[in-house]
Each structure stands twice: as C-alpha cells, then as structure tokens.
Design goal:
Layout (H helix, E strand, L loop, with lengths): L10 E5 L3 H10 L4 E6 L2 H13 L3 E6 L5 H14 L2 E6 L10 H20 L2 E10 L11 H9 L9 H6 L4 H21 L1 H4 L3 E7 L5 H20 L8 H12 L10 E4 L3 H6 L9
Parallel strand pairs: 1-2, 1-4, 2-3, 4-5, 5-6, 6-7
Helix pairs in contact: 1-10, 3-4, 4-7, 5-7
C-alpha cells in the first residue's frame, strides 16, 4: 500500500545500501523520496521494503558504481524523481575482501565518479556526504601526491604513477590511499563543482564501526583491531547510529556553513597513533 499522497517530494539518494547508509537515510529521509542505489537488486528491494513498511517513500536503482555511465544514469534517475536534496555515498570494499586493484577502482575512482555526477543534479541548497574512513589519516603523503589526488580529472586518476605503483602494493595501502583521496576530492568539489551548484559536500571518516561488513575485517585481523580499540581513548567500537547522527547534522541546515571538511569519528584511534600509543601495521 502506498500512503504517500505527495508526488512532489525532494529526493535523498543513497549509493551503497548497507547498514550504515540505511541508518543515515532513516535519519534524513522522512518527507523525501529515497532512492537506493547498489549492485545487488535483491538487497535493494529488501531495504526498500523495510523503509516502506516504516512509512518512508523508497525507490531502487541497480548501479555499477565502477561504471561512470551507470552512475550517471543513477544521478539522472534521482533528478527525474524530484529536486535532489541529499546525496550520500557509502559504497566501498574493505581491505580483507578484495584486491588492491579493486579497492582503487571502487573506493577511489568510483567515488570520484559519484561526486562528479551528482554535482550535475544536486539542487541549490542541497548537501552531499561521502563516507570515507579513519584510514585516510594513517599515512602521510607528499604534498605533490596529495595535489595530484585532489585535482587530477577523474578519468585520469587510475593512470597516476602513485595509483598504479604505490597504491596497489597491498590492500591496506590501497585502502588508505583511496580514503585519503575521498577526503581530498570532496574538499576540491566543495570549492568547485558542488560550490558552483550552490550545494555543500563533506566527508565523515568513521573508525571501527560494527556492521555486518566489519565482521569480515574482524575475522581476518581481529587481534589487531582489538589492540587498536584498547589503545584508543574511547576503548570501544562505534555504531552505525552514531555515524548517522553526525551525518544528519552535516546534511542539515544547521551545518550550512560547513563544506569541504572531514569529520573524524574514531573514538580517538588516530590520536592514539599520532601520539605513539598505538603502532600501526599496514598490510
């Protein structure tokens, strides 16, 4: 049954309909048409059904995040449903799930595709949010590399010497490079394409957050994660709901003076690393 009597709702588009993304969309999706995008149709429909059963208006779109034409079609579908008020990107793979090359393609290049394509359709006064990671703070890149990662056109990112050589040494390095690139690309977009559209965009960099996806990481490197948690000031993991609360703020009018920034929500893990309390082992 469709209880929605208003066909002219603003749109909130979510790319990557996992537990964290859905926690965010539940926070900001009331009174909007929610468009869920991802590569697994069955999962999208299940998530949409859950939302509809709670009174939300939800649509789905199968998207290959690594295919620019597919991402463009997703953005265009969002625009066809109404004024695109919000865009949230949580798509990505973890280091213990896949190869360095796949991480570069999905977490680094594909995220930049999405930032570019939604800059074309985001409404004036709209807001975007990319979920990055605390790992974006775990290595120091040279100013030259950071400039390249921030400013190179998306179609040329994969051809950078740093990306082709250094970033694919192992999955850990690939993931760190991808997440730092997310932060840099958003900062650039805030001042250029998104700023020109009259919209804002930011990143959130979560620490160790318990999600179904995270259990793959815990199974592969649980001891290291436990040591990291114990070394952090918070001494605990985080939840998707805590990330969603921060996301709702950054997307709201109350954050209308905030753009091009990253909010690190890690329980103090990076503080522990930078202060020498925890020794990072990237592999």
């Amino acid at each position: 049954m469709n209880f929605n009597m208003n066909s002219d709702l603003p749109v909130a588009a979510l790319l990557g309909a996992g537990s964290m993304g859905c926690a965010i969309i539940r926070r900001i999706g009331a009174g909007k048409t929610i468009l869920l995008g991802g590569d697994k149709e069955k999962n999208l429909e299940a998530r949409a059904t859950e939302l509809r059963s709670s009174g939300y208006v939800a649509e789905t779109c199968v998207v290959d995040a690594m295919d620019r034409d597919s991402v463009r079609a997703f953005a265009e579908k969002a625009a066809s449903l109404g004024e695109v008020k919000y865009f949230i990107d949580t798509a990505g793979a973890s280091p213990n799930q896949t190869s360095p090359e796949h991480i570069v393609a999905l977490d680094l290049v594909a995220t930049s595709y999405a930032i570019d394509e939604f800059a074309r359709v985001i409404a004036r006064g709209g807001a975007g949010l990319v979920i990055s990671s605390q790992t974006g703070y775990m290595m120091d890149f040279t100013p030259e590399v950071e400039k390249q990662l921030a400013l190179t056109p998306t179609g040329e990112l994969a051809e950078l010497d740093f990306v082709k050589k250094d970033a694919v040494v192992n999955p850990g390095i690939a993931y760190i490079a991808a997440k730092r690139t997310n932060q840099l690309r958003v900062r650039t977009a805030a001042a250029t394409t998104w700023g020109d559209a009259g919209a804002r965009i930011n990143t959130i960099s979560p620490g160790v957050i318990v999600t179904p996806l995270a259990y793959d990481e815990f199974a592969a490197a649980g001891e290291n994660y436990q040591k990291m948690i114990e070394a952090s000031p918070a001494k605990r993991v985080g939840t998707s709901e805590e990330i969603a609360a921060a996301a709702a703020f950054l997307l709201s009018y109350e954050a209308s003076f905030i753009t091009g920034t990253d909010l690190l929500i890690d329980g103090g893990v990076i503080a522990a690393i930078k202060s020498g309390r925890y020794q990072l082992n990237v592999r």
